[in-house]
Automatic annotation (TrEMBL):
GO terms for molecular function: ATP binding; phosphorelay sensor kinase activity; protein dimerization activity. The keyword Nucleotide-binding applies. This is histidine kinase. GO terms for cellular component: membrane. Residues 322-413 form the Histidine kinase/HSP90-like ATPase domain. It catalyses: ATP + protein L-histidine = ADP + protein N-phospho-L-histidine.
């Protein structure tokens, strides 16, 4: 009983998707193909069917017209609801078989040519839209009907039922296979898109973690200075009252506690297989050494540090570190994508901000890219995160001569709340 109910449901429950075949195609003429094909079939099969049924089978004109209109007219409905169209065509085939039985011994029976063409064309729409169990149920009904006609009316059987059974089965199986392959490709494309999004998200998180580990040294240095100054204040300053000495002690204790908490946080951020970096974080003074290293990879880079930068003196460590990393990543990209090209690095001060410009010429000839042994970051993602951290701006893009330019503006004295604004912008 359960099998029979499932069989009936397969014949009466269509898929909820009622889109026209090829509706998602990019080219308009491809989307129009199903409509053109249906219109051509209507124009050819309705008049041909009426003539064939009346002249060759001797069917009454009204009944012949009704059968031709139902069988061919169901094809436009099959564009959106192929199972419903089949539910209309199947009874009309039975009525036509009864009406044409014994009418003409020399004509195909029970499948006149026009009926056969309508039915097979309808199988195409079924195959590309309905579920596999529905296709199997439709083919079984077709097979049983053809078998019944062969068993009961053997003297009129001419082999057309075998042709319909075989061709309908091939069409349904081939369409179901092609549709399954197309669905698998769409799912694979969707999964690849999700994977790409996850990779981008993971890259962003890894770069933020890397920046946090680097800035730990900067902040830890300041916290250590605060603790040392607070501890030594009672010895350096004579005559401090007891409340002031106690206050300095509390400041030193808070600084050491904050430093310990930061070290615990760094332990969480550091990967299990990475070791602590003992070297001091680089800054603007390390740019000449960076250019010397890059020159060994074949990139001739010129450094131009404006006089205003030298007069400014030491910049905040976070700003100097970010400027160094931006230049490092920009030059690393030149090595990767434009080996042998010349580059120019300019560091200046404008409107209370440190400006860093790195531009390079196009690669000479067809030089092969140089693969670096270790990555300095994640390219533009890392640059954007460093600039966002300081509430600055970043401008990147190709130049008119075919090169590339990276321009960053890093505020030296950020107004209060700049970090919160940048964080809010990122969250939004």
């Amino acid at each position: 009983m359960t099998t029979w109910n499932s069989f009936l449901r397969a014949l009466v429950e269509p898929v909820p998707d009622h889109r026209v075949p090829l509706a998602g195609a990019r080219r308009p003429w491809v989307r129009a193909l199903p409509f053109v094909a249906v219109l051509a079939m209507l124009g050819a099969l309705i008049p041909t069917g009426v003539v064939a049924l009346t002249q060759f089978y001797g069917v009454n004109g009204g009944l012949a017209a009704a059968l031709a209109v139902v069988q061919a007219g169901a094809l436009p409905l099959a564009l959106v609801r192929p199972l419903t169209a089949w539910q209309l065509v199947a009874p009309s085939v039975l009525v036509g078989a009864i009406a044409t039985h014994g009418a003409a011994d020399t004509q195909p029976w029970p499948w006149p040519v026009t009926t056969l063409l309508c039915y097979l064309f309808l199988m195409v729409f079924l195959a590309i839209r309905e579920r596999g169990r529905t296709l199997l149920a439709v083919w079984l009904v077709t097979f049983l009907g053809c078998s019944l006609s062969w068993t009961v009316f053997t003297e009129y059987f001419d082999g057309s039922s075998v042709v319909v059974t075989a061709l309908s089965g091939v069409i349904l199986l081939l369409g179901w296979s092609l549709r399954g392959r197309g669905e698998a490709q769409r799912l694979l494309a969707a999964q690849e898109q999700i994977s790409e999004t996850e990779r981008a998200r993971r890259t962003l998180l890894e770069e933020r973690t890397r920046i946090a580990r680097e800035l730990h040294d900067v902040v830890a240095h300041h916290m250590s200075v605060i603790a040392v100054q607070a501890d030594s204040a009672p010895y350096r300053i004579e005559g401090l009252p007891e409340p002031a000495v106690a206050e300095f002690g509390q400041i030193a204790t808070a600084a050491r506690g904050s430093l310990a908490e930061m070290r615990r946080l760094l332990g969480v951020l550091r990967a299990a297989d990475s070791e602590a970096d003992k070297a001091p974080q680089p800054g603007l003074n390390d740019l000449p050494g960076l250019l010397t290293t890059v020159a060994q990879a074949g990139v001739r880079a010129e450094l131009d540090v404006a006089a205003a930068v030298r007069e400014l003196g030491p910049v905040p460590e976070a700003v100097g570190l970010s400027a160094y990393r931006i230049v490092q990543e920009a030059l690393a990209n030149v090595v990767r994508h434009a080996p042998g090209a010349s580059a120019r690095v300019r560091v200046a001060v404008a409107d209370g901000a440190l400006t860093v410009d790195v531009d390079n010429d196009p690669a000479p000839g067809k030089a092969r890219a140089v693969e670096t042994g270790g990555s300095t970051g994640h390219g533009l993602t890392g640059m954007r995160e460093r600039v966002r951290l300081l509430a600055g701006t970043l401008d990147t893009g190709p130049t008119a001569d075919g090169g590339y330019r990276v321009a960053a503006v890093l505020p030296i004295d950020r107004p209060a709340g700049a970090a919160d604004a940048a964080s809010g912008e990122n969250t939004a």
